[in-house]
Structures are given as C-alpha cells and as structure tokens.
Amino acid sequence: MKIRCGSNQRLFLILLSITLLRSVLLRSATAVCDLSVFDSKNLYSYSLASPIPKFPHGVLSEDGFYRVEVNKSVLWFQLCNGMIFNHGPPRCVDCTDCGGPSNCGMQCSALVANDVGGYPVCTTVGHLSSSNISIADETNPHSGVIVKMFSINQNVDDKVVNCSLSVTVLCDYTGAQGPHTLKKSGACDYDTLLKHPSGCANVVYIHGRGWGWFGTFLIIMLSLLAGYLLAGAVYRYFVLRIHSIDAIPNLEFWASLPHRTQSSLASLVRKFRGPSEGYRSSYSPVNF
Ligand SMILES: *[C@@H]1O[C@H](CO)[C@@H](O)[C@H](O)[C@H]1NC(C)=O
Ligand SMILES: *[C@@H]1O[C@H](CO)[C@@H](O)[C@H](O)[C@H]1NC(C)=O
Ligand SMILES: *[C@@H]1O[C@H](CO)[C@@H](O)[C@H](O)[C@H]1NC(C)=O
C-alpha cells in the first residue's frame, strides 16, 4: 500500500511540528524559573512561571513588568521573561542595550533609572539569558527563592561595572505583595523583595514513605511464606511421617522455581520486543 501525503496529512505534520517546537521553546523559556532541590527526606520543586489558582502566569507580572521606586531611582523588572510595556514605558536616557530609546526596556529583564543631575539615566541591570535561581534560605526550603539577574560591563558614573538584581520571592499562600523596597549595594547591585504563592515549594516525600510501605509489604509476604513452609514441614514430618527432604511442602515447585523465573522473564522480554519473526500465534503455547 502506498501512502500519499495529502494536504490533510501535511497540515497535520505542520501542526505537530509547531506543537513540538512550542513545547520545547516554552520549556527553555521557563527553565530559568524552575528549581528542584533535595534534602535527606524531600524533593522541593519550584516553578515560578507555572499557572496556579488566581495567577495564570505564576509569578510573572500580568502588566508585563514590575515597578518599584525609591529615592528618585526607579526599577522595572520582569521575572522569568523579558519586559513588555503596554502602558507606562520607562522614560530615561541612555537605554542602549535594553531596547534603545523607542523600545526602552523591551530587550532586557531589569532596568534602573537613576537621577543624574536632574535627568533619569538608564542602566540595564538584568538579562533573561543570564539569570540564576536559588533557595532564599538554605536552612528552610519552604522560605522561597531568589532570582538573580546579571548584566556585565555597564557604564555607571563613568565607570565600567557589572550590575545585578536579586529578587527574593518569599512563599506566601495568602496572595501577592510587593515589591515595595529597593536596596542598592556596591556600584550597581540591587535587591528587592516580593511575596507570592508561586514562591512556595511543591514538596514530594522521597524517603521514608515509599520504601517504608514497600518494605513492610515485603516483610509481611516473606513472613507468611516462612510460616507456611514451617507449618507444612512440621505437618508432613510428624503427621505424614515423611522423614526426608521431601518433608518441605511443594518441594518440586521450589526446585523448578529458578527455571520458571527464567522462562517467564524470557517471555516478558519477547512481549516487549514484539513478534520479530512471523506471527506469535504460530508458536506453540508455553506451558507453565
Ligand atoms: C548561581 O547561583 C548559585 C547558587 O547560589 C551560585 O553558586 C552561582 O555562582 C550563581 N551563578 C552565577 C553566574 O552567579
Ligand atoms: C564583570 O563580569 C565579567 C564576566 O563575569 C568579568 O570578566 C569582569 O571582570 C567583571 N567586571 C567587574 C568590574 O567586576
Ligand atoms: C535610598 O536612600 C537611603 C538613605 O539615603 C539609602 O540608604 C538607600 O541605599 C537608598 N536607596 C537606593 C536604591 O538608592
């Protein structure tokens, strides 16, 4: 039979490729805001950009940006993505590597405007491509995370420096708050803080529970088997008066166990591989 690639199939293939490409792109875009850490008992995973109830975009600002203003300095930033301005775009001079004067802010993920002699002067402080996520408080994985963004070789006060913005996202199940504060340290390093339910970890118990349940089950099964063998052997020895190794119940079965296991495994392997030559039905059935 020949398969003709009609327009329907072609459309299907195109749609399939777009879907695959989209999922790959989405994954790489959100990976900057995913974090998983283990301790001895749990796996804590954060996914800041994932939808949660009331926040379809996770921690991302629905406006396309967050804004915080302190001492005539204004900071704009977006988490897990670049900034988008549908309203209130930054107005400052020297917006070179953040989108230029007409698209200021659109090509970076954090921008600060400082007052220099009465004029707001722009400095890019963060790029999406160079950002970093870590646990806010190493001793308490429930605390939240810190997203850090960097931008290298910026001109600040006629000096070439590196800039950064650290956004602490504290876990708060009650809702989103902030950012209200902006701290500056060094020449061009900024800190701000917001509270958001997206900063809360999903906790998966990996130790204790899973293996504990299975371990208990295994011990019960082995105890039952041992009890059965012992009772059977005692009965056969004293009541049936079988005074040889045959006193062990179902001896034939136990003796054949290794061979049985081997053949069941082999048939399982065959099943997974599928019939490679001819049809399965032409074989004689395996007797167990
Ligand atoms: C990213 O964060 C980790 C953990 O806080 C740190 O060790 C690492 O140096 C950071 N990367 C950069 C580029 O700063
Ligand atoms: C800025 O960062 C770059 C790359 O990480 C480094 O080579 C350079 O020395 C840094 N500059 C300053 C002033 O710290
Ligand atoms: C704002 O001013 C206070 C006090 O002068 C200073 O400690 C703080 O670092 C300033 N903040 C920024 C973001 O410049």
Automatic annotation (TrEMBL):
Localization, UniProt: Membrane
CC per GO annotation: Golgi membrane
Alphabetic keyword roster: Membrane, Signal, Transmembrane, Transmembrane helix
Residues annotated as signal peptide: 1-31
InterPro entries for the chain: Autophagy-rel_prot_27
Transmembrane segments: 211-235
Main location: membrane
Top-level lineage group: Eukaryota
Membrane topology, from the record: Single-pass membrane protein
Pfam family, one: ATG27
Residue runs in coiled coils: none
Name of the protein: Autophagy-related protein 27
Protein's organism: Trapa natans
